[in-house]
Specification:
By secondary structure, the chain is an alpha/beta fold. Helices cover 32% and strands 22% of the residues.
Length: 281
């Protein structure tokens, strides 16, 4: 049985990610933990003046959030009616990423699945701040579902790596499982960028050949600062349905998605994005 954490702020993007998860895991037995994280600073407003003396602000907010989550669960059951899926409502009152890590540890979560915000105006941002903090600091694999993305299939997955660390199969068990379960083709995209020589490089071909025997190996050798555009082109030229990477302290995440000028960042991730955690965050 899989345990999946679905954070929600009740936005269209988070609800879209929840709907994606119902389809993605439709044939698997799963416990879904739908979670809302509240911040105390959000509730200091005139609205709190109407709270009765017998109720605390905390209880009022938590009860309202739980009711909203239960409404989501009710809608899911009516829409999907899947006997393989069980649901649990969680409301926390904490730092967003800390709350997620605590729930993951308590309930042995296998995957955090969450949605992103869309870009607006010249702010072509890739992820909302909560999402980027989670994929940088979460101790559990995170699957990010882009704004408006609808599940179709998982015919091709690309795993992008700069080979700055040796891999262990226990770190990427989900990738192996999904390749087999969804009969996906796997492309291993080896990247040598301008920072490549600054670190020790590992040859992970033996690892991939042993654990992903049918995988295809491709290579990008670039001196461009904007590594993301190189990967973006590869994704669309090869009809990739999911991009996966392994996070680490040298911060592939930051190098992959940071630009000096947001106005110059012309693209954003538009397929599901799977991030395996760094062992020592």
């Amino acid at each position: 049985m899989k345990s999946i954490l679905l954070p929600t702020d009740f936005s269209k993007n988070s609800l879209n990610a929840i709907n994606f998860s119902m389809k993605f895991f439709k044939d698997q037995v799963c416990d879904f933990y739908i979670m809302n994280v509240q911040k105390a600073s959000s509730f200091i407003s005139d609205d709190m003046m109407v709270v009765s003396s017998s109720a605390t602000i905390y209880n009022t907010i938590v009860d309202a959030a739980k009711k909203s989550i239960n409404n989501i669960i009710s809608d899911i059951k009516k829409t999907h009616n899947n006997s393989k899926h069980n649901f649990h409502a969680i409301v926390d009152y904490d730092n967003f990423t800390d709350a997620i890590n605590q729930v993951c540890e308590k309930h042995n979560i296998n995957l955090v699945l969450m949605g992103t915000k869309g870009a607006s105006g010249l702010e072509k941002v890739l992820f909302g701040s909560n999402t980027i903090h989670v994929i940088q600091r979460c101790l559990t694999p995170v699957l990010v579902i882009p704004h408006g993305y609808k599940y179709s299939n998982l015919s091709k997955i690309a795993f992008a790596t700069t080979n700055l660390e040796p891999f262990a199969i226990e770190d990427m068990q989900l990738l192996k499982e999904w390749v087999n379960l969804y009969h996906s083709e796997l492309d291993i995209l080896h990247i040598a960028d301008q920072n490549h020589l600054a670190y020790t490089s590992y040859d992970n071909h033996e690892f991939f050949n042993a654990n992903f025997k049918q995988a295809k190996h491709d290579y990008i050798d670039t001196t461009r600062k904007d590594m993301f555009k190189e990967i973006y082109s590869y994704i669309h030229n090869n009809k990739i349905k999911m991009l996966a990477i392994k996070n680490k302290k040298h911060s592939f995440i930051k190098r992959l998605f940071t630009s000096n000028s947001l106005e110059n960042l012309a693209f954003k991730i538009d397929i599901p994005f799977l991030v395996f955690p760094c062992r020592n965050v």
